[in-house]
Amino acid sequence: MCGIIGVMATSPVNQLLYDGLMVLQHRGQDAAGIATAEGNTFHLHKGPGLVRDVFRTRNMRALPGNWGIGHVRYPTAGSAWNFAEAQPFYVNSPFGLVLGHNGNLTNADQLKGEMFRLDRRHINTNSDSEVLLNVLAHELQAAASGYELDVDAIFQAVAGVHRRCRGAYAVVAMIANYGLLAFRDPHGIRPLVYGKNETEAGTEYIVASESVALDTLGFDVIRDIEPGEAIFIDLDRNLHSRQCAQQPMYAPCIFEYVYLARPDTVIDGVSVYEARLSMGELLAEKVRKTIPVEEIDVVIPIPDSSRPSAMELAQALGIPFREGFVKNRYVGRTFIMPGQAMRKKSVRQKLNTVGQEFKGKRVLLVDDSIVRGTTSREIVEMARAAGAIKVYFASAAPPVRFPNVYGIDMPTRAELIATGRNDAEIAAEIGADALVYQDIDALKQSVTKLRPDLTVFDASCFDGCYITGDIDEGYLDAVEGRRGGKGGKQDEDGDGKASQQLVLGLSSGGQD
Fold it and tell me: How far apart are the first and last CA of the chain?
């Protein structure tokens, strides 16, 4: 999960890109970068940390030009910080390219071999984004007429990327002396939206991971980029679009609606806020069947992304909704912090209880999801320490039992608390008196009811169905081996719990 933005403006673009990245900061706190173009020259600055820390006044002054791209990075493979992997990436051949990528290529290792043997290109980092950049560069060179590009050649190159690359990718790229390119993988797993702004000097265009960036910067949303589609904005600010995939299909990542995206974002025509309200409404039905409603005195959300679901759940059950936790806004999201020890330490720093909302009460805590269980366990302990006599726990998402390989950092099965455990065992692990999970069909329904023609999703972390159809046990073992984690097989972590059976997704989407 990363955040990307690209702008073709009529005036200096550096401030627009900075402001857009600030809005997308929740999508990555590991590193940030901006590239702009002025004449034949690219200007690039990137570094580790938050946007506000990476860019100072002197850095902004060194980013002239009316068009550019930006990126906030979230490490997708659990690796330690490596400055060389900050984005955007740059390559000077054949035309000069700068690229920012959100997602994860599942065949990056295969492509690296092809780069060396066939394309005669060298990869300097372990980042799949650099692989994607070089694949695009090679395809542009193959599609060009000599040393000249036209719109058809650019779209032909994107079609070549689709043929070679597997996995999830939403991309913004700058082609020197030509313009701004953006495209989305054939399944539309990661989000990408574009819009425009009419000025006296002409039309400006923007592409971003979430519509909230367009809203904040004063651009009007045109639409989401379709799965497999590419758009190209030339230096005269003319917009071109084309479907470049042979068999595109909508299968967006449902975890975007659960947790990743901001609630004020609209993804593929569905309001994230309304989807989370719907999750709460459907979760209330499951809670009513599991816990006697009269046994619950108050519903308390775990801030922030669970708040809409908790609010709707409380209303549906007729139970008071209260804010019981105060969040420190200056501590990073624990889910995207590398290292279990750092995550555990940050929970107490991030949240504090409002004691009177817990003392002597039977509380139902609502969270968006439970991944490793570290945060949930700490929060249950905090509720009991504040005086709660019973602590129930509800998750707006189903149990996370499988790794996500499309750009979210949860690759090790042994790290997932739901792997090999039933609901009662998970409740015991986090210390709750009872635990209620959303059903997978209800989760999908919460989005589909808002857009009936959107029926296929990547929900692989919940159901093990990998929509690209190229993930097997060997692939997951290899990813976990590079990370140094356990494979999740029988007795491998000493608790006698077997891993879940892997279900392979079909590229036709028939597994939904």
Answer: 23
Q: What is the pLDDT of residues 186-233, one digit of tens each?
A: 999 999 999 999 999 999 999 999 999 999 999 999 999 999 999 999
Helix (H) or strand (E) holding 326: strand 325-327
Which residue in this structure is represented by tokens 């035309």?
A: 95
The H-or-E segment that residue 73 falls in is strand 67-73
- Count CB-CB contacts under 10 A for residue 482: 14
- The whole-angstrom separation of Cα 97 and Cα 93 is 7
> In sequence order, what are the beta bridge partners of 271?
266
465 Cβ neighbours under 8 A, 6+ residues apart: 459, 503, 504, 505, 511, 512
Contact call for residues 435 and 427 (beta carbons, < 8 A): yes
pTM beyond cutoff 0.85: yes
Contact status, residue 99 vs residue 89, Cβ threshold 8 Å: yes
Q: For 141-155, 239-253, 487-501, which range has the lowest pLDDT when averaged over its residues?
A: 487-501
Beta pairing class for 390-395 and 434-437: parallel
What band does 484 get if pLDDT is binned at 50, 70 and 90?
low
Q: What's the CA angle centered on 448, arms 447 and 453, to 5 degrees?
A: 135
Q: How far apart are CA 86 and CA 73, in angstroms?
A: 7
If phi over 0 gives left and psi between -120 and 50 gives alpha, with beta otherwise, what is residue 74?
beta
Vertex 109, ends 108 and 114: CA angle to 5°? 90
Whether 2 is catalytic is yes
Q: Helix (H) and strand (E) counts for the chain?
A: 16, 23
The SS3 call for residue 372 is: coil
Q: Residue 239: phi, psi to the nearest 5?
A: -100, 130
Nearest to 507 by CA among 460, 481, 469, 463: 469
- pLDDT per residue as tens digits for the range 127-151: 899 999 999 999 999 999 888 999 9
Taking the CB of residue 463, how many other CB atoms lie within 10 A of it?
22
Here the tokens at position 416 are: 């997932």
Picking from 19-23, 410-414, 447-451, which range would have the lowest pLDDT averaged per residue? 410-414
DSSP per-residue string spanning 167-236: EEEEEEEEETTTEEEEEE-TT--S--EEEEEEETTEEEEEEESSHHHHHHHTPEEEEEPPTTEEEEEETT
Q: Is 420 in a helix, a strand, or coil?
A: coil
